[in-house]
């Protein structure tokens, strides 16, 4: 195994490391040694439990750490109040105390839910993220946003609770279905579109190894993504300003997710891919972005097999007014105005609260046509 890559998230006494490598699960016990913890509760889902829990468990037990398991059903529908309640109840029944730790082993669903439970259990216990999807490795495991969904929208209930460590074992991605991998890839592309045109250019030119799951290529992409996210989070932990750039494509994306339904057959990254295309199209309509750049975004996402329009997601009719109403429900709304992430070109994203709602309505009308 090559030496793992280590990236620091510079948040003072809440700071932590992200460790990325091929085969890290087997060394998890060693990585936990520094925390002097005697018991951990590993929270995971049924699918991940069947594939990767045994490896984590034996590594922890070999390090003398007692393991309690909580296995949840897989899928976005698990990110709700009833599962949060059930999880907290199981953790209390297992007498997980403040000096114990939670480990979130799984994708963004497990990470967001277990992280929120960790923030609440006995007013806060430490937790470690062990992300097993590309989405979770490049995005959701880093930055401390935890939460569940509400019928009013995604992630509307939650807390900021930073993990103490992120262990991203790229070997776990070898069991990830292609579709899930691609959904995570949308967020990898996102970092290039926000602030790193060279990174986007590199992905455009050379993504075959990465999409084929080559360990070094995946490690490099996860590291580049985590470094980009860690920089933004360190500068703006609670999203008072620049962290909102990470929401490129997400206002549109969340509206699409709310419309299609969380339990349905739509991945978050797929909604974000369509949302990023829309954000670039909006930027072009506003005269801010060269049309060639928007065309490159659409072309690359389509080339790898991600959806780039509403009809790539579902054939059923879409309603522009409903999508617009969903967008106004988003967390990024203040005084009724949506904070949009726009772009002056690839790698040149910026925030704007000045977008004329009529322009958005026109874009949505065109998108549903
Ligand atoms: N907190 C944040 O900052 C943040 C950022 C981005 C996304 N998110 C959230 O993350 C969630 C999406 O995360 P996700 O895409 O990881 O979804 P997910 O957790 O639902 O995982 C996707 C599917 O893959 C399965 N799976 C996980 N790891 C596997 C593996 N190694 N091999 C085989 N199957 C595996 C899971 O069981 C699940 O069925 C959304 O709820 C989104 O809101 C949060
Ligand atoms: Zn996202």
The gist of it:
The protein has 369 residues and is of the alpha/beta class. The chain has helices at residues 28-33, 46-62, 81-93, 108-120, 134-140, 178-195, 197-205, 208-211, 215-235, 250-260, 268-285, 291-304, 310-313, 320-328, 357-368; strands spanning 5-9, 16-21, 39-45, 66-72, 101-106, 126-131, 145-150, 153-160, 165-169, 333-334, 337-338, 340-343, 349-352.
What descriptors fit this protein?
alpha/beta, single chain, globular, 369 residues, binds nicotinamide-adenine-dinucleotide, binds zinc ion
Describe the structure.
- The protein is an alpha/beta fold.
- It is built from 15 helices and 13 strands.
- It has helices spanning 28-33, 46-62, 81-93, 108-120, 134-140, 178-195, 197-205, 208-211, 215-235, 250-260, 268-285, 291-304, 310-313, 320-328, 357-368; strands at residues 5-9, 16-21, 39-45, 66-72, 101-106, 126-131, 145-150, 153-160, 165-169, 333-334, 337-338, 340-343, 349-352.
- The longest helix has 21 residues, at 215-235.
- The radius of gyration is 20 Å and the shape is globular.
- It starts with a strand and ends with a helix.
- The model has no long low-confidence stretch (mean pLDDT 95).
- The structure holds nicotinamide-adenine-dinucleotide and zinc ion (ZN).
